Amino acid sequence: MRTLRRPSRPAVRRLWITAVTAAVAATLGAAPLATAAPAVPLAPQDTTAAVTRAPQPYLFNFEFNKHLRIAGGNFTLGGRVYLAVKFNTGRIAFERTVFAEKRLFIPGGGISVETTIASPCAPGNNGYAQAYDWSTRTWSPRLPVPICVRFD
Q1: Is the preceding peptide bond at 120 cis, omega within 30 degrees of 0?
Q2: What are the C-alpha distances in Å from 152 to residues 50, 123, 149?
Q3: What burial class does residue 82 get, using C-beta atoms within 10 Å of its C-beta: 0-12 exposed, 13-18 middle, 19+ buried?
Q4: What is the Cα–Cα distance from 94 to 91, expressed in whole angstroms?
Q5: 139 — phi, psi (to 5°)?
Q6: How are beta strands 101-103 and 143-145 bridged, if at all?
Q7: pLDDT range class, residue 49, cuts 50, 70, 90
């Protein structure tokens, strides 16, 4: 095989580089596609380890301004959340739709709703609170709460 000698003049050198570049591009463009190496997968094939479930939403309660307040986390950030406080019989004592927001020390989207239910009550839980995340279509677990009932 013979080695080509590079020309010494700059104009001839540029012409020679252009010709060689065009010849290499034509050769690579005419190569059959069947000789390409098989694609390497970017993700692992074991999907059981790669798939994780989103954490389940949760609720907690406390007293604020002499009212029952329900708060929770792990909701879709910016998503609609339906909150219902019901008696154990299923009758609704309070309901409201809110949007989950970023809250300090609460993972995911958090909610905090002050209900119209008086608090504190006599000991014992006669109801429960539950929230529905419209984005993920999941209910939070039931949170047992006391619902004060007036007797006058």
Answers
A1: yes
A2: 59, 19, 10
A3: middle
A4: 9
A5: -95, 145
A6: unpaired
A7: very low
